[in-house]
Amino acid sequence: MPAIRPTNPHARRLRREATGVERKLWSALRNRQLENHKFRFQATIGTFVVDFLCVEKRLVVELDGSQHR
């Protein structure tokens, strides 16, 4: 797995402009609410920004929506 880098401005903007579905899932994942696993929202991995990341489980969750036309 590539090194996780500090938040970039693009990821910061994506968090500010999150879709309703992203916000809803984030409210269920944040603060270790899902079986005590830590998730990151709009995390940077290499040159990519992923919607949700759980490092300890090596899990990336991407939500597709109308923004991906």
From TrEMBL:
It comes from the Bacteria. Keywords: Endonuclease, Hydrolase, Nuclease. SUPFAM superfamilies: Restriction endonuclease-like. It holds the Pfam family DUF559. Residues 10-69 form the DUF559 domain. InterPro entries: DUF559, Endonuclease_DUF559_bact, Restrct_endonuc-II-like. GO terms for molecular function: endonuclease activity. This is Very-short-patch-repair endonuclease. It comes from Sphingomonas leidyi.
